[in-house]
Amino acid sequence: MDHKTVLLEESVIALKIKKNGIYVDCTLGGGGHSELILKKLEESGKLIAIDQDSFAIEKSKERLKEFNNIIFVKDNFSNFKNILDNLNIEYVDGVLLDLGVSSFQFDDRDRGFSYWDEAVLDMRMDQDAKIDAKFIINNYTLKEITRVFTDYGEEKNAYRFAKAIIKAREVKEIVTNKDLIDILKLSLSEKEKRKQGHPARKIFQALRIEVNQELKVLEDVLPLIVEKLNPKGRLAIITFHSIEDRIVKKFIKKMENPCECPPDFPICICGKVPLLKSIGKKPILPNDDEVDINSRARSSKLRIAEKI
Question: Is pLDDT of 113 > 80?
């Protein structure tokens, strides 16, 4: 399947690209966002493209070979500040985060992201990482697995699924996606099996988040990005599920109103001043045409904030 960039025009427009500005695509992926940013930059402008997936970087290098004002960085965007410091870049004019799994990652059955194909449980965005989904399923305790399924998948059957996994792995190691899905299905009632949607959807989401520490990385990096933005610099973030979106929404709101004084204080004495302003009262959603072309865009939301 060809890589389809979600909310492409909307997210790049949100950055208000200056032709000679410096921008960061924290999630290079298939290179769609980066390509459009580069087309809006003059040669004096610069784009730093970050991805922890070597395959993504190599694919995008080929796609973007006509541009000479892009710097590719293989790293986790959690190291945002260090990446810019190592490049002697003090401030940037805009940062893009597309938090979804790239289409070519999802469609590569060997990566284990999809519950439709049989593959070894993996789900690592960085293939050099030590912890994969198979390790979690076969080594985490009942309590730990339940926590992952509850916190990151919002799965109401988290405890029941975790208990079934613990019981099954006592007999033999759980190796493939199919092994895991079969265990989940066996623990469901016939009525539950008939419900719309794949029973493993939330579980696979939860495992992917845990493997890649996605939420912790997101929470940690947002303040670092704000610190490195120029005044009027833009931050554009595309999320794909409610947990991510809540984190982003809460962070922007906190940056808009950071005052920690008691509400009955007549004036602020904590000294904390607003650092961001939200652009738009509500997130931008994909239109019907985009969803028809790319079903993975259905759950996406774009939030935009500007440095004060």
Answer: no
Say if CB 180 and CB 162 are below 8 A apart.
no
Domain locations in the chain as residue ranges: 8-104+214-307, 109-212
Quick one: average pLDDT of 150-164? Answer: 97
User: What is the arithmetic mean of pLDDT over 24-31?
Assistant: 96
Average pLDDT over residues 9-19: 98
- Do the two domains 8-104+214-307 and 109-212 of this chain adopt the same fold? no
SS3 264: coil
CATH superfamily of 109-212: Putative methyltransferase TM0872, insert domain (1.10.150.170)
* Nearest CA-CA partner of 242 in 290, 185, 299, 284: 299
Element (H, E) at 10: helix 8-14
User: Helices then strands (H, E): number in the chain?
Assistant: 14, 7
Which CATH fold topology does 8-104+214-307 show? Rossmann fold (3.40.50)
DSSP run (H or E) holding 304: strand 301-307
Q: What angle (nearest 5°) sits at the alpha carbon of residue 298, between those of residues 297 and 303?
A: 75
Query: If you average pLDDT over every residue of the chain, what do you get?
Result: 93
Q: How many CB atoms lie within 10 A of CB 271?
A: 9
Q: Please state the pTM of the whole predicted model.
A: 0.91
- Residue 103 pLDDT more than 70? no
